[in-house]
Amino acid sequence: NAGVTQTPKFRVLKTGQSMTLLCAQDMNHEYMYWYRQDPGMGLRLIHYSVGEGTTAKGEVPDGYNVSRLKKQNFLLGLESAAPSQTSVYFCASSYSGTGPYEQYFGPGTRLTVT
Amino acid sequence: EDQVTQSPEALRLQEGESSSLNCSYTVSGLRGLFWYRQDPGKGPEFLFTLYSAGEEKEKERLKATLTKKESFLHITAPKPEDSATYLCAVQAGNTPLVFGKGTRLSVIA
C-alpha cells in the first residue's frame, strides 16, 4: 500500500496563478483533510471531507476550494495564488465511524508564491 | 474554543538524558488525544492515541500518559534518531483534530 500520496512535491507560482494539488489514498478511508503548516503556526485545517461528494470548511478556508469526486481522491485548488499562501500543504485521511481514529498524512507539497 | 498548548517549544538533550514533553488542552468532551512525530521535510507520523485519563501507552523509548488536563510524552534514554518535532492533537465531539504547535527535540550524541 502506498498510503497517502500527494502531487506535486514542490511548486513555484506567481501571484495570481492557479493550481490544483492532488491527494490520493489507497486505504479506503472515508475522511480526508487538507492542512497547511507554517513556521510557528503549527498545522491548520483548510478543508475536509467526510465522504465522496461532501466537503466542509476548516479553520483557514479562504482562498482555497476543494473537491471530492472520488472516495480515494481529494483535490485542493488555489484560484488566484497570493504570497500569503506560501506554505507546506499536507493531506491526511482517516477511518470514519465511532472512532476517534488517527489520521495518516502524506509527504507534503511545498508551495512558494512569488 | 478548544486549545492545545505544547511545551517546551524546543528541547535539547544529551544522548541518554531522559525528559518529558507536555501537551495541555482545554476541550469539552475529549474523545481522544494523539501524538505524532514529524521529521524535517516529511509528513507527521502517528505514534499513540490516548482515550481517557490514567491511560498509558509505550513504544520503544517513548511513553505517553494522559490526565484530565494534559498529556506527557516521556522519552527514556533518548538516542540521536529520536530527534524530531513531536505534535499533540486532540479531538472533542465530532469536530476535526486540533493540533498544538509542537516541540522540536534535538538529541546530541
Please tell me about this protein's structure.
The complex is a heterodimer of chains A (114) and B (109). By secondary structure, chain A is mostly beta strands. Chain A contains no helices and eleven strands. Chain A has strands at 4-7, 10-13, 19-25, 31-38, 42-51, 54-57, 65-67, 73-78, 87-94, 104-105, 109-113. In chain A, the strands form two sheets. In chain A, strands 2, 4, 5, 6, 9, 10 and 11 form a seven-stranded mixed β-sheet that branches. Chain A has a four-stranded antiparallel β-sheet with strand order 1-3-8-7, with no helix packed on it. In chain A, a hairpin with a 3-residue loop joins strand 4 (31-38) and strand 5 (42-51). In chain B, the strands form two sheets. In chain B, strands 2, 4, 5, 9, 10 and 11 form a six-stranded mixed β-sheet that branches. Chain B has a five-stranded antiparallel β-sheet with strand order 1-3-8-7-6, with no helix packed on it. Chain B contains no helices and eleven strands. By secondary structure, chain B is mainly β. Chain B has strands at residues 3-7, 10-14, 19-26, 30-38, 45-50, 56-59, 62-66, 70-75, 84-92, 98-99, 103-108. In chain B, strand 6 and strand 7 form a beta hairpin. Classes of the chains: A mainly beta (114), B mainly beta (109).
